[in-house]
Design a protein that fits this description.
Elements lengths: L2 E5 H8 L4 H7 L4 H10 L9 H6 L18 E5 L15 H11 L15 H14 L8 E2 L7 E3 L4 H17 L3 E5 L2 E6 L2 E14 L9 E14 L2 E6 L9 H80 L4 H17 L14 H4 L9
Parallel strand pairs: 4-7
Antiparallel strand pairs: 1-2, 3-4, 5-6, 6-7, 7-8, 8-9
Length: 374
Amino acid sequence: MEQVSITRQELYDLVWSEPLLALSKKYKVPYPDFRKICENMNIPVPGSGYWTKLKFKKDVTPIPLDNSYTGENILTISIDEYGTSNNIVPGKPVKQLEKRIEIETKKEITVPAKLTQPDKLIVAARETLNNKAKGRWGTGILSTDRNEIRIAVTSGLIAQALRFMDTLVKTLRHRGHDILIKNDETYFVVEGTEIKIGLRERTVRVPPAEGRYSADYKPTGIIYLKMDYFLIHKEWDNKRTPLEEQIANIIAKLETVGHNGRLEKEENQRWWAEQREKKRLEEEVEARKEKELRDFRALLATAKRYDEVKQLRDYISVVERNEQDKGTMTDELHAWLDWARKKTDWYDPLIQREDELLDDSYRTNLEYKKKNIW
């Protein structure tokens, strides 16, 4: 098993030489853990948009390394197997978190023999389930209403289901999490991550009786809690271990999924921020190119006008000298020469004399667009 030892200064140099995601892949360290390593060693990391700005040769300044740091100065990473004791940030398996939860919330995770001071969500669920148990369909699976916490059990398991869910909800709230009900589903919200949860009683398929086309589903008396978060699915039931004794494990799993979900969300936000910054810089470069070409075209057009002005002045002078030499100068020609010089001054990009009939727009194309007076 290959191991690599990196000093704090070397890790700082690496972090500011290539993106953190690339380093995490290179050293086979999960991205969130790599960020945690830098945080624990007080190593600043580039902010959103840093690498994009660097790519487009924008001014960027690395955050200097804090030399007052007095903690661990050597990071040892196992290339083949991450998570050994040599690493500064070891893996945090659910079991370790579960044990800590058992210690920190020993009182909260204990399911009482009787429902006492239930959470408001459990109060609403109890009323709905008990009312349905007294009704016409009380012998089948009973479900809470669409805007209530998700529970679906037979009448004989209502009390157990309510006590379990009340304990789970209270423990979650005690640990700073929340419960959200939207779109007819129940979500436990951990670090901003919405994890779908439902408590149900398992059923087994019973083949259809003779003369019937559809099968029946028979309740088994086994209740289970199901968790869904994108591609992560997990179930806990009371088939081997009472569900009431698994609350610490359930919350540990929820907190792990919620924590990783938050890190993934933050990474996605950073990625999108970098993409937006990259697009902004690209658009800025494109806008500069477009302006450069536009300004150059204007310069070229102005230069051409200046050449044309010189030709006009030369022509007017030649006409004047020719008429003077022949002795044929007339008042009409004097008036025309005066008019020609004024119009040349109007067209001259260095003078741009005002004209009572021609405004600035005519100088560029010398075209007259007749207005529709109707």
